[in-house]
Structures are given as C-alpha cells and as structure tokens.
Amino acid sequence: MTGHATLLVNPASAKGGSARVAGEAVRLLGAAGWRTTVISGEDAAQSLAAARAQVAEGTDVLAAVGGDGTVHLGTQAVAGTGVPLGVVPAGTGNDFARMLGIPRTDPAAATRLLMDGRRRTVDLARCGERWFATVLTSGFDALVSHRVNTLNWPRGKARYQLAIALEGLRLRPFPFRILLDGKSVEQEGILVAVGNTAYYGSGLKICPDAAVDDGLLEVTLLRAAGRRQLIGLLPLLKRGTHLGHPLVETYRAREVEIHAPEVFAYADGEFAGDLPLRITCAPGAATVLVPHEG
Question: Cβ contacts of residue 194 below 8 Å, gap of 6+?
Fold first, then answer.
C-alpha cells in the first residue's frame, strides 16, 4: 500500500534535529513508494494553517515530527476529521508517544508506523478553542513549563529538573476551586493537573490512571506542601505511585473547570491561558497510528 504522508516539522527546529529526522522519514517513505509533503512554517500559526490545508485536501496521514508541542499542533489539524495522526518523535518530552508505545528513540521504526501502523481511536481534551492530547497543568507545574520554555540549557530531562529546582525556590500554594461535572471542590494546593493521558514533563506520571480512550479526564490535585515534602514526592510522581499519599487527591470527570486568581495553565507544554478554564473530554476525537499489539 502506498499513499501521501504530510510531515509537520517542529517550526522551532526547522533546521535542527527535527529537520534531520524528517529528512530520514522522507527517504524511507519515498523508498516505499509514498509521496510526501513537508510542512514547517515561519511559526506555529503558519504551520498549522498549512497542516489544515493538507488535511482538507485529503492527505492519508499527518505526521508530527518533533515533541509534544508538535503533536499539539497536529491535533488541532486532525481533530474530528478522521485523518490519522502519526508521530515521529524528535523532541525532549515525547510524552504522547510514550503513552501510546510509539518508538521514541528509533525514528525509522516510528516512520514505518505511518505506512503500516494500527489505527487507534483516542480521546482528546478541549480547552476553549484548543485541543490537547496529554495533560493540562496549572499552578507549580505550569510555572515549571513556563520556565522550561525560557531555558536554552541543558537539554532533555535535565532541563525539566533544573526548572523544577528553580521554581521550587518560589514554591507557594494557590486557592483552587475545581468543578468536576458541576461538583465543587475547594482546596489550597500546589498544582492541579488534568490528564487525558498519564504523562507530562518528560515522563512524570502525574495522572497514572488516565486512559486515552475511556471518555474521562483524570484530575490530580497536590495539596499545599513545603519544598521538602515536594522533593520527597518527586520520585513517586515519576513512577506514578503517588496515589493514596496524604497530600494527593485524585478525581475523574468528563468536564473540569479550574479557578484560581492570577494562575495560568499549560497544555501539551504549550500556554493554554489564564484561569478560570473549562476542560472537556472529547471521546474518540482523533485517530493515531500506533504499533500493532503483540
């Protein structure tokens, strides 16, 4: 089987690692008889407009070549269209690929999924006019995401660890009010995370029971804590074994609304807006190409 694959390349890395990975993907696809179109605009808005045009014209697959930010762009283009989203990881986090078992360190294997991967229907979450695929974060973890985006060094997971350390020096609680399918929860907390999937922050399993196809969002609230308590929690967050900890509360809902003064949120590592924000689960909103089971 042959077809047409559109490669959406991280516009912030158009001449870097993502571009090199995209070049190899084009070679592999071409060798198999596939036609390819590469998109990498001057900025995210230009890239998204081009991706939407390709989807409207009938591309067989839209592949995000980059990290979770590029996946975020791709979901805006394919949500509700039936056009499958492929992922060829070339970023630092790659948490969406991690959740779905897409190879994160083997671009050739990930590229082959564009041609013969299994189609899996997954949920997306919607916040205003934007879709997101992984986790929306507010409070401390949103501050960490903002800090990560301002750092040029170091690379990979070390950047997240440095951002956590820097923001930990300014740790403070926020007066959250959360509406869960209309039911109100009020609690001072360090962070609130709303997960369509389990992972964020380059492998932190913040919403460990989140399933990408159950029609629900998982909400994790970390209650007010000091720096020493937060440091002690980090290994548990990494493994996803923090459920049941006295500082952690979890909920599940189809619709979540978060309120807190002077607090903002990030989703898929991208700025999502100032609170209050309403997040809704959109069951089966996207199709993703994933490895065959077994």
Answer: 125, 135, 136, 137, 207, 217, 218, 219, 256, 258, 279
